[in-house]
Amino acid sequence: MTRPSHFRRALQQRNLMIGGALTLATLMMALVSLTWTPHSPLDLSPARRLAGPSAAYWLGTDHQGRDTLTLIMIGARNSVSVGLAAVAIGLGVGVPLGLSAATIRGWWDEAAGRIVDVVFAFPAVLSAMLVAAILGGGALTPVLAIGVFNIAVFARVSRAAAIQVSGREYVRAAIALGRTRTDVALRHVLPNIAGPVVVQATVQFAVAILAEAALSYLGLGAQAPNQSWGRMLKDAQSLLFLAPGQPLAPGLAIALAVLGLNLLGDGLRDLLDPRLRPLRGA
Amino acid sequence: MIAFLVRRSVAALITLTAASIVVFLLLTVLPGDAAQLQMGTEGDAAALAALREQLGLAGSLVGRYLNWVGGLLTGNLGLSATYATPIAGMLADRLQITVPLAGMAVILSTLIALPLGMLAATQQNRPGDYGVMAFTQIGLAIPSFWLAILFVLLFSIQLQWFDMGSFPGWAGSPMPALGSLFLPALALALSEAAILARVTRGAVLDTLREDYVRTARAKGLSPGAVLRQHVLRNALIPVTTIVGLQVGFLLAGTVVVEAVFTLPGLGQLLLLSINNRDLLVVQTIVMLGAGFVILINLVVDILYALIDPRIRRGSHR
User: Fold this and answer.
1) Architecture of the A20-25+80-275 domain
2) Does the interface ipTM go beyond 0.90?
3) What domains can be seen in chain B, in order of their start residue?
4) Which of A58, A238, B38, B286 has its CA 20 to 30 A from that of A96?
């Protein structure tokens, strides 16, 4: 397959286009918030608290009179950094683990399989509560908990893909030519399992955003003065009687970011290999 | 089959033991001396030693671990540091909410997902299919606790159909209790239903391509009869697996939904214990959760092997 045909097929893919656009929007929000937000997140004013949308405050204000759009942008930064870090931990440890298990097999494969089983016994929210019990709440808690869970996910996905690829002719040929196992794994197997791993990475990014929001909602994630979508929902819930519109913006932000990543993952999967199915669940 | 059972059970036992060691080390060793923490700077050495004895912190690490595991197995879970009451009793109270909540969510999720998945598969690439797939994308993207908040807003505050923050209990008629668990269960069920509907659709589509389905059609069975007698049965195998795996995740999901609806379940107790640094309670609940997930995985694998003999022989992992 050549690049131009890939590109043309990508343009025709609705999932890929919508998912890509939503994901890009989330990433841009996070990036832009580093240098510019419509208002300062520290700009409090009891006079304009819980205001509806207006020309100056597009999404209204929160219970302290802060601009909601500003908080959503800063929340995006938090979600994106937790998601990226958790996926990076998963990729960095999980892929070498899965690849080496598929290459070496035997006792190492068995041991890696057991480790993965143990991690999977703790759903991400549960392991996050374990981490929170030790470290207390904080930005690091969701990263560690979701990251460790992701290690197991990527180890399983890359091991399965590597075993499948190992049976192909070009890998057998490389072995027959006398290449070392490490050489074959790194130069022939690894590039060919990139597809499923990338697809899984988008799914895990989405799972991380959902889990981070849940943990922040429970008070175990980002702490004040840091903003997060989950904390915004927590604040909004305590004011439901006064301001029923408050939960809309942060909830929609989470849903659109997750929808974007899931669609992007589905689109990439169809583009790379229609037979692949990513693992689901948090 | 016996050999498979033994092999699989031994593997589950190893996983369970490893998980318990991880939980024990993380929660007893890492946070430091719990007795010292509880006593603060007050108290002399004798009082500290007495408290340590009371909290089960005396003795060697291995002895303490075995003590804890022995307690787990016999139901003697020790005392909560915050409330000074037996943990076993606290858990029993809380489980009366969390288990029915998770169970209701599984039932609702299956009731929503199976018809949707079958509809999508039989309507592949037609409007019905697109509608179901759009629903599943939305279901996957909406956080269950946001949905729960929206339910509270609509049904409890606007329509006032539903009383927030009170659980009537199971004494007397079960209907009020079931009623108060319905919305939380629905909030939990929707995202699981989205996953399950996709799995059902895929399983039905795979089965529709099988030779025996073509044969059944060729011998003149009506499409409805083929679906009922041949497709559904076989498609249910992967669907059952996913339902089993979801039970564990649902149990974890109850933590968040219980918080939204202020239901005094196991998740609320876990959260409270984390905030109170009541680590023995945290340790026990997390271990029970992990043990439950491992057990469910084992049961699912055994069921799977009963249904599909090929799995017993090969290494399917």
Assistant:
1) Orthogonal Bundle (1.10)
2) no
3) 9-74 (no CATH), 87-275 (1.10.3720.10)
4) B286
